[in-house]
Amino acid sequence: MKNFRINLIPGDGIGVDVIAEGVRVLDAVAVRHGGLKFTYNKLPWSCAYYLEHGRMMPPDGMTVLRDCDAILLGAVGFPGVPDHVSLRELLLPIRTGFDQYVNLRPIKLLPGLVSPLKNDDIDFVVVRENSEGEYCGRGRSDDNGAVQEAVFTRKGTERIIRYAFEYAKARGMTRVLSATKSNALNHSMVFWDKIFNEVRVDYPGMESRQMHIDALAGFFIMHPDRLQMVVASNLFGDILTDLGSAMLGSIGISPSGNINPEGIYPGMFEPIHGSAPDIAGKGIADPAGTFWAIALMLEQLGEKPAADLLMDSLCAVLKAGAATTPDIGGRGTTTEMTDAVIASILGR
Ligand code: NAI
Ligand code: MG
Prior knowledge:
The chain folds into two domains: 1-100 and 256-348, Isopropylmalate Dehydrogenase, CATH 3.40.718; 116-247, 3-Layer(aba) Sandwich (Isopropylmalate Dehydrogenase). Helices cover 42% and strands 20% of the residues. It has eleven helices and twelve strands. The strands form two sheets. It has a ten-stranded mixed beta sheet with strand order 2-1-3-12-11-4-5-10-8-9, sandwiched between helices. It has a two-stranded antiparallel ribbon with strand order 6-7. Helix 5 (154-170) crosses helix 6 (188-200) and helix 10 crosses helix 11 (334-346). The two termini are 20 Å apart. The mean pLDDT is 97.
């Protein structure tokens, strides 16, 4: 029996609901698999925790968090605590502190999903830089103005672009597209392009090109079928993947894996959506992004068959339709959709 220790950070709003359901699904996967066991350590770090303690996590938070095989996060942020506080004091310190420099975001129209696009041949991956760039947090501001800096190191830029090429190569992809904006961002993105051009030389069999982020946003809508691998900076990748998830019909569907490829630190897996205060407490949050994130986690833990079991079950429920949540056209609640996924897992 393999035992994996999972640290849970449900966070705020619908994050709490989707993580509770994610745990039920993971337990069902363990039962059906027979050789897996998951033990959980649920951490209360959230905006509610902040209002009580004046901080998003305790001083020894990173030490507590490190002691596990993987981290599962719901979403963080709620009215009452400024978003830059909740993000910068919990989510971003974990991503950078654990050197989770890869943010892996598959965008795929799963069976049963209906894209708002006419061209719905959608199956690609965005590799987002996750440790520096526009989200480095440096700058200054006062009443008269603000300066926000972006940091692109050679190490940080090269490793993410190389990861994208390696990932693409290992999965038989033939195209890598780099998101840039080097016409306007005359330092950071000119440097990004330079590194992209250095790295691509090592992959002669791979068709590689760059596109300005504004044109690329249009390309996502017009020609999604031509996308295979997109590599992007922290900000660009963030925006492109919300767009990508909307192309699948809902922001509630897409997952995200924050990965330290060297395996020195645990990875953190989460849906890409936020805490959705507008639907929090209504019981209709789409849990699909969390289930898909759990599948990414299982794959990262070396349990590909378990990941496939979960994805096959999720796809069966999406295809049947009725039990899904309203954002993707169904009439189900979060719990009803989860029950359907669990029944599918156990029935296989
Ligand atoms: P959001 O993703 O929470 O919501 C955007 C829209 O999508 C809302 O209308 C919401 O109802 C809908 N939506 C999101 N997830 C859904 C789901 N699973 N099922 C059905 N509908 C869903 O983004 P927003 O409104 O910009 O941010 C809300 C809060 O979440 C803010 O405090 C923000 O900082 C935080 N946030 C946290 C993230 C994280 O923890 N990784 C990521 C993005 C935002
Ligand atoms: Mg985002």
